[in-house]
Design brief:
Blueprint: H1 3-23, H2 32-42, H3 49-61, H4 69-86, E1 96-97, E2 100-101, H5 103-106, H6 109-129, H7 137-151, H8 156-166, H9 173-197, H10 204-231, H11 234-237, H12 243-246, H13 252-275, H14 284-295
Antiparallel strand pairs: 1-2
Length: 298
């Protein structure tokens, strides 16, 4: 990771941590157990990859970070809600997330379901009413629509449904990519697109290029996750290592072999870089972030 990216990612992580804390209900507010669970799941954990994408895209477009605090929080609320529900016994049945007990283990299954529901609602409340968002009402509505589509049956939830249906079956590479374009890629694309909607009068060709970039890194992120699930360990990952293979889920290493999966990640990185060809040095953080995604160890 370049020093510039390392410094900016640290800045983004610290910034979004404060922003998330400020937007979550306090533990003393009724219902206290629910609000405690929301804060337990959101704060002090995770790479914050999606908020960092929002901030890095904003930097490319010359948008001040304080304008993006609301969108960055909204996309992270959706992401955490999805993790809580993914970990439930009816889904992936995981006991560990971000290095600590999952929500249904730390609290109970009903509280975990409600916590995910509440975070999903809070995401859209944030986009609708957060006073730090300076975009026009038209662009604010575009943000809400983009995040809703990325989260629903045509996005993340649809991808999770396909994932559950694919357990123990043999699927093709295009089918696997379609699943992850929805399950993982949709929210990553939304992270970038929320920043483009914060830029009034953005050149449509620039917005299209940034969306192409996001599509590529959304897939490369999942390819790398599949690789790490086999090559890393539980302590490093912060979640149960080898769970996908144990559950007989289709993965890129299973379809392409480990060498093929690593080449796939590299090919997607190169396509992501090509997508930024109309930008100069202002997009260097996005270029570095794409490389980091395929080189990370957790």
């Amino acid at each position: 990771m370049s020093n510039a990216l390392k410094e900016y990612l640290s800045f983004c992580q610290n910034r979004v941590e404060r922003a998330l804390e400020a937007r979550l209900p306090g533990e003393q507010i009724l219902p206290q157990k629910l609000h405690k669970a929301m804060r337990y799941c959101v704060l002090d954990g995770g790479k914050r990859m999606r908020p960092m994408l929002t901030y890095c895209t904003g930097k490319t477009l010359g948008i001040e970070p304080e304008v993006l605090d609301g969108p960055a929080c909204a996309v992270e609320f959706i992401h955490v809600y999805s993790l809580i529900h993914d970990d439930l016994p009816a889904m992936d049945d995981d006991d560990l997330r971000r290095g600590k007990p999952t929500c249904h283990v730390a609290f109970d299954e009903a509280t975990a379901i409600l916590t995910g529901d509440a975070l999903q609602a809070l995401a859209f409340e944030t986009l609708a009413h957060d006073p730090t968002i300076t975009a026009s009402m038209e662009n604010r509505l575009k943000m809400i629509t983009a995040l809703a589509k990325a989260s629903g049956s045509q996005g993340m939830v649809g991808g999770q449904a396909i994932d559950l249906e694919s357990v123990g079956t043999k699927i093709t590479l295009p089918e696997l990519e379609n699943m992850h374009i929805h399950k993982t890629g949709a929210l990553i694309r939304a992270s970038v697109n929320l920043a483009t909607f914060a830029k009034e009068g953005i050149d449509p060709s620039a917005a299209k290029k940034l969306d192409q970039y996001a599509k590529c890194i959304g897939l490369s992120f999942q390819v790398k996750d599949d690789i790490l699930d086999e090559e890393s360990d539980t302590a490093t990952l912060g979640k149960t290592q080898g769970k996908d293979k144990f559950n007989d889920k289709p993965t890129y290493p299973a379809l392409l072999g480990m060498a093929g999966a690593k080449q796939k990640a590299l090919d997607l990185h190169e396509k992501a870089i090509e997508s930024l060809d109309i930008f100069g040095k202002e997009a260097d953080l996005l270029r570095d972030l794409s490389l980091y995604i395929i080189q990370r160890d957790h």
